[in-house]
Design a protein that fits this description.
alpha/beta, 17 strands, globular, disordered N terminus
């Protein structure tokens, strides 16, 4: 891959050859050819850009910005296996590639290194949070640690928040210009030109998508495959194992997901989709689900944290419609990919034949075969789970029959999964001090772990499996008859997967059709359920004290003369703290 090809990178991230990155052929009308984009004087200072992660998305922006400041962008061009070998920990495949590309970039000896920290990106206007993966955000830091020789030249690692648009980062770009020795006053005009390039390129992509869909829909018998994934794993030829070419060589039109008009597609209100790429994938999945000629192929990587949840949501969204998931790493065999793609295309063909048969039968009978709502968990279309709901300033549970029960009702109990040996009991005590029955569930045993694994893909983090297991164990085996249960699960807005736990728990309850069980998540967004500052502070103290007690417990186990007596004293003090936690 050379710099010229990189200049034609997709907005959502492709820098492969032309026939891999677009549904048509050639350069879009009105756009300069790639070879004209990086012409520069050999006397210019160079800025090294690692061709990894979101550089595949924002290359037009950064390329034009640096050029406007009379600097020459230099991209890494090959994955150096020696660089991959230098990584300090086992990472996902895209991070491995980032190391290999970084080694190649350093060999080109640029005057500056540009390793941006991109915290968030804008996908749609309806997102309250739109963050990037922790490994994407952490790239500047682990690469500097792995390659100390990088410090021989200035390293530029500005922190960008693109969720509010590029112009909102004017101060960051101005400081970047200053660090590059350019007149900061030129930064504003340079950024305007850079934004124009990025927007024009995005417009080109969307136009390609519109043209591809229009051509597809002219022939109702034809189909197309939509390539789902990230810009750096599904569109980059070093990472995608030639998957786009494998489809196109079979005469199948392939459309990158970012070319679809997915922006107005709704997401389920409980999804809490704070990952920017996850938001794009889920919206596009709904579009593909509802389009009779589109079928999805999802390119993912082993150990991808967000995809451990997104894949489950994606498959739920697709329902009975065929889709293909290809999980890649450096050891993925080409023959296996060929076999799976062939099988997938066969399934699509048979699925369409069945759909035609059903449609013909419906026409003859004058009926319509019902279809599931896109996004509905299998088997839950006619089930209405209980939900947590505020009435005025009071927190309660809305039951399936429509009745509302306050949280202080004696029939209601809050159950908390074990999230620490000492702290969970203290949080339960904070609820009880507010007049709410609460119980801390015991730590997961072998049975609970099996339950959790049986109700997850096992790709999620282990605490998800143990908390889901103990929840099901309680609801299915230990819950008293007539109890209305609020399962407490904390939440966050990313980038950690923890913010998906309560979503997964709610879907698990719905899938098992468990009545009178709702998920309770408290945050600043819902004003902590109106429980007031006294509860919020008590719960915070419980978490902090629980962590401190855990440290003390570890010290007792390693250093106490009489460990049993030490533990007995610790538990006695913990119970005393529970009485005064508020």
């Amino acid at each position: 891959m050379d710099v010229q090809e990189a200049a034609g990178a997709s907005e959502a991230g492709r820098m492969p050859a032309e026939n891999e990155r677009q549904p048509g052929r050639g350069t879009p009308p009105g756009r300069p050819k790639p070879e004209n984009q990086l012409k520069s004087s050999t006397k210019q200072k160079t800025v090294g850009i690692n061709r990894s992660f979101l550089i595949n998305t924002f290359f037009p922006l950064f390329n034009r910005f640096f050029q406007e400041l009379n600097l020459k962008p230099v991209l890494s061009e090959r994955v150096d296996p020696n660089g991959i070998d230098q990584r300090n920990a086992p990472f996902c495949y895209p991070v491995e590639l980032a190391h290999g590309l970084m080694a190649d970039l350093l060999a080109r000896d640029p005057d500056y290194l540009f390793l941006p920290h991109i915290r968030s990106i804008k996908i749609t206007d309806d997102a309250t949070s739109s963050c990037t993966c922790p490994f994407v955000q952490g790239e500047p830091y682990y690469l500097r640690s792995t390659f100390p020789e990088a410090e021989r030249r200035p390293i530029l690692s500005p922190v960008f928040e693109f969720s509010q648009g590029f112009a909102a980062n004017q101060e960051v770009f101005t400081e970047l210009a200053r660090q590059l020795g350019a007149d900061p006053r030129r930064a504003e005009a340079a950024l305007e030109s850079a934004i124009a390039d990025q927007q024009a390129f995005r417009d080109d992509l969307k136009e390609m998508g519109r043209q591809a869909l229009a051509e597809l829909e002219q022939d109702p018998e034809s189909t197309a495959v939509v390539l789902f994934g990230r810009p750096y794993n599904s569109y980059v030829r070093e990472a995608n194992k030639g998957i786009p070419a494998k489809f196109s060589s079979r005469g199948i039109r392939i459309i990158p997901v970012d070319m679809l008009p997915f922006e107005d597609e709704p997401l389920d209100g409980d999804m809490n989709m704070y990952w920017a790429m996850g938001r794009m994938i889920m919206k596009a999945a709904r579009f593909v689900k509802n389009h009779p000629q589109l079928y999805g192929t999802y390119v993912t990587n082993f150990s991808c944290g967000p995809d451990s949840f997104l894949l489950t949501y994606f498959r739920d969204m697709m329902g009975s419609k065929p889709s293909l998931t290809l999980e890649l790493d450096s050891h993925t065999a080409d023959a296996g990919l060929e076999t799976r793609i062939e099988a997938f295309l066969d399934i699509v063909r048979y699925y369409r034949q069945i759909q035609k048969t059903v449609a013909s039968a419906d026409t003859a009978a004058g009926t319509t075969t019902p279809t599931a709502h896109p996004g509905a968990t299998a088997g839950t279309a006619d089930f209405k789970p209980a939900t947590v709901e505020m009435q005025g300033k009071n927190l309660g549970i809305r039951r399936a029959d429509g009745s509302w029960v306050p949280m202080t009702d004696p029939r209601v109990k809050v159950v908390l999964p074990a999230m620490g040996r000492f702290g969970t009991d203290l949080v339960a005590a904070a609820f009880r001090r507010r007049g709410i029955r609460a119980e801390a569930l015991p730590p997961a045993d072998e049975e609970a772990l099996k339950l959790g694994r049986g109700n997850s893909s096992c790709k999620e983090c282990l605490p998800l499996q143990t908390t889901i297991g103990t929840m099901l164990q309680y609801l299915q085996k230990h819950r008293p008859k007539g109890e209305i249960t609020a399962y407490f699960m904390a939440t966050t807005d990313g980038p950690c997967r923890f913010g998906q736990y309560h979503v997964f728990a709610g879907r698990t309850i719905a899938r098992h059709r468990i009545p009178d069980a709702a998920v309770l998540s408290l945050s600043s967004t819902n004003s902590y359920g109106g429980l007031g500052n006294s509860f919020t502070l008590a719960a915070w103290r419980a978490i902090v004290i629980g962590d401190l007690l855990n440290e003390i417990w570890s010290t007792i186990l390693t250093g106490a003369v009489d460990k049993e007596e030490g533990e007995a004293i610790l538990w006695r003090e913990q119970r005393a703290l529970a009485q005064v936690i508020d």
